[in-house]
Amino acid sequence: MGSWNDFNDAQSNTNLIPKGTLAKVRLTIRPGGFDDASQGWTGGYATRGSTGAVYLNGEFTVTEGQYARRKIFTLIGLYSPKGPDWTNMGRSLVRGMLNSARGISDKDMSAEAQAARRISGFADLDGIEFIARIDIGTDASGDDKNEIRSAVTPDHRDYAQAMGAAPSLGQQQSATNTAPAPQPAAAPVPGRPAWAQ
């Protein structure tokens, strides 16, 4: 008997990204059509659930590395009739996302950092790229699923490597001028238009 007749020794494939993995992700907000202008929730981004809870329905796509193109679905709490915990967790995640995306230390309380942590609306979050710490939670059926509960900020030792970009607002102040020497331009490829060179 070959391996295509007996599946007793087949490995289970839960297809989960390991807990604690750092990954650069892009947030896409799946619109729920719920607005409450008194809260600043406009543009149809928020979703109101059957329990009365309000959240952003987040689809986080890993943009590079081993898990590139994988999607993680996480709700970002805006309001819960049960109390402030859901709201506080959501606000904490958004603050971390902004710090991570904009290169701001969580401890930075300068006017520039405070301004960078403000948004004009949820549209500012749609498409934001940041470093996430992948976690594992459970879905409605009780099965394991990946979640994003926190963002990694420049304070973390692996932030710069995971972000893979030039230092941002918070890092520029302390960075020294250690730019690499310019590389010679690649030779043009025959048959390619100038814009694709």
UniProtKB/TrEMBL annotation:
Q: Region annotation Disordered: residue ranges?
A: 142-197
Composition bias of kind Basic and acidic residues appears in 142-159
Recorded superkingdom: Bacteria
For bias kind Pro residues, which ranges apply? Answer: 181-191
- Where composition is biased (Polar residues), the residues are 169-178
Name of the protein in its database record: Uncharacterized protein
The source organism is Roseovarius tolerans
